[in-house]
Write a structure and sequence with these properties.
- By secondary structure, the protein is mainly β.
- It is built from no helices and eight strands.
- The strands form two sheets. It has a four-stranded antiparallel beta sheet with strand order 1-2-3-4, with no helix packed on it. It has a four-stranded antiparallel beta sheet with strand order 5-6-7-8, with no helix packed on it.
- Strand 1 and strand 2 form a beta hairpin.
- The N and C termini lie far apart (about 30 Å).
């Protein structure tokens, strides 16, 4: 619904998501995460189906020491599946804010 807005080095950034919500118990389709600063509206992740899971922000800060925010996100699509994605600003291409540089995935079966 609402973007998460934060200031970093006096610059305004936001993270937000869109989805086709199926119900109120963390089930959704076409879940997309975006990172925004001014005219740049960068898609970060697409999850076709969320099943009792909710992606979350684990960390926002300057990991690569370049003066711009980096992100660590939990992008799992299922309550038993954990996907941690690292986005660094120093690897971003022109027109991007960050680049996905590492992913850790793990299934945690009951």
């Amino acid at each position: 619904d609402k973007p998460i807005v934060f200031l970093y080095n006096n610059e305004s950034y936001s993270l937000y998501a869109t989805a086709d919500v199926e119900d109120e118990v963390y089930n959704a389709q076409n879940y997309r995460i975006y990172f925004n600063k001014g005219a740049i509206d960068q898609p970060l992740a697409y999850i076709d189906m969320l099943e009792y899971a909710m992606p979350s922000i684990l960390f926002i800060g300057d990991i690569d020491n370049d003066g711009f925010p980096d992100l660590l996100l939990q992008e799992g699509h299922n309550y038993e599946y954990h996907k941690i994605a690292l986005y660094l600003s120093s690897y971003a291409d022109k027109g991007e804010l960050v680049k996905n540089v590492a992913v850790d995935e793990e299934w945690r079966d009951c």
